[in-house]
Amino acid sequence: MSRVVLVTGGAGFIGSHTCKRLAAAGILPVVFDNLSTGHRTNVRWGPLVEGGLEDTGRIVEAIQTFRPECLIHFAASAYVGESVEDPGKYYRNNVAGSVSLLEACRQAGLNRIVFSSTCATYGVPPRLPITEDTVQLPVNPYGRTKLMIELMLGDYARAYGFRSVALRYFNAAGADPEGQLTERHDPETHLIPRALLAAAGRVDRLDVFGDDYATPDGTCIRDYIHVVDLAEAHVAAVDYLRDGGDPLKANLGSGRGTSVRQVIDAIHQVTRRRVPVQLLPRRAGDPPVLYADTTWARRTLGFRPQLSDIETIIKTAAPGFGLEVRS
Ligand SMILES: NC(=O)c1ccc[n+]([C@@H]2O[C@H](COP(=O)([O-])OP(=O)(O)OC[C@H]3O[C@@H](n4cnc5c(N)ncnc54)[C@H](O)[C@@H]3O)[C@@H](O)[C@H]2O)c1
Ligand SMILES: O=c1ccn([C@@H]2O[C@H](COP(=O)(O)OP(=O)(O)O[C@H]3O[C@H](CO)[C@@H](O)[C@H](O)[C@H]3O)[C@@H](O)[C@H]2O)c(=O)[nH]1
After folding, report:
1. Which ligand lies nearest the alpha carbon of 35?
2. What is the residue with the minimal CA distance to atom 9 of ligand 2?
3. Which residues of 18-50 are buried (b: 16+ CB within 10 A; e: fewer)?
4. Which residues form a coiled coil (predicted)?
């Protein structure tokens, strides 16, 4: 393969699915990861360089060795709840880590970057669906660190001519339909895998964080986007930058909102297993409703999610938790 992309965080959930799609598109993914939350066994489509974002020298060396045309930057700490309890970890790993990474890119002459941003940069949006020009006022440290990195990319563009695509994902979910990759976080805090663990009897129950939100059934609403649809968008973003595209910020979601209760019902429908639940108070830092307007991603990147209805998301994720799909 003559095309090469450097992928920080490529041993993680979204990064590994993206490496599989990159390879299918004829691009060699070189993974740079410290395996803090990722898995060595997820790295199957190219080499693994083991290292941390803080190690500027090691990143420079990787760029000089593999000569990638672009960087995709997934590596981060990514739990909203944890970021409220331990903000220092987030500022160090996400913000300081990204400064080290961007400095390495500058030194080694790599100036195209696709960055994992998030809808958490919007905070509690004043109107829905969320478009890219919605004011960015994050309500938790995680979202603030991601907004800071978006701002840094703007400064590096002005100072050094970097060109970047910031992809603001909504809630990544589902898994490789061919079963080669699953979602494996430890501890697992995301709603769909937690609910599947409860349905499979591998945890006692799912904690539901609040049912007193101003939503139709009282539970939080999120926009679940299939990880393979996200992966495809990354390949499109790499091509977009290769073809000379201007710096871009784009939402990646399904465009639909699904409540916590609707997720639980869909799991029952797909697996015929009940999800035992316990109602708890609201989780700090959780906005009530988030869903995307993806018009801009469609126009600029040809983004058209194919697998992001909630049933398909659950059907592809369930086998990874030992659950049979029954509908
Ligand atoms: N999962 C979601 O719903 C979601 C939504 C929006 C944005 N994001 C962003 O997408 C990215 C990937 O998320 P994910 O769910 O795949 O998470 P993940 O934890 O599965 O993957 C993160 C990867 O980065 C690596 N990593 C972390 N810190 C590192 C460091 N300092 N040096 C080197 N490697 C490091 C980890 O080992 C892991 O392989 C993150 O940037 C996250 O903020 C995720
Ligand atoms: O055991 C659980 C886990 C979650 N929830 C609720 O389910 C919703 C989704 O939560 P979760 O799956 O933890 O995702 P988010 O907090 O929305 O954060 C994810 O989605 C963000 C974009 O919305 C990304 O930026 C983050 O990286 C990613 O962790 C929220 O309302 C939670 O309160 C529960 O009720 N019980």
Report:
1. 1
2. 191
3. bbbbbbebebbbbbbbbbebbbeebbebbebbe
4. none
Q: Give the model confidence (pLDDT) of 68-90 as tens digits.
A: 999 999 999 999 989 999 999 99
Ligand 1 proximity of 253 Cβ (cutoff 6 Å)? no
The chain-wide mean pLDDT, for the chain, equals 97
For residue 52, which phi and psi values (nearest 5 degrees)? -105, 155
Note the pLDDT of residue 1.
61
Tokens 């030194």 belong to which residue? 107
Domains, the chain, in order of start with CATH, read 4-173+225-252 (3.40.50.720), 191-223+255-321 (3.90.25.10)
Distance CA 297, CA 249 (A): 8
**Matching residue, tokens 């669906």:** 129
pTM (2 decimals)? 0.98
ipTM reported for the complex, 2 dp: 0.97
Strand (E) or helix (H) holding 216: none
Residue 142 bears catalytic tag: yes
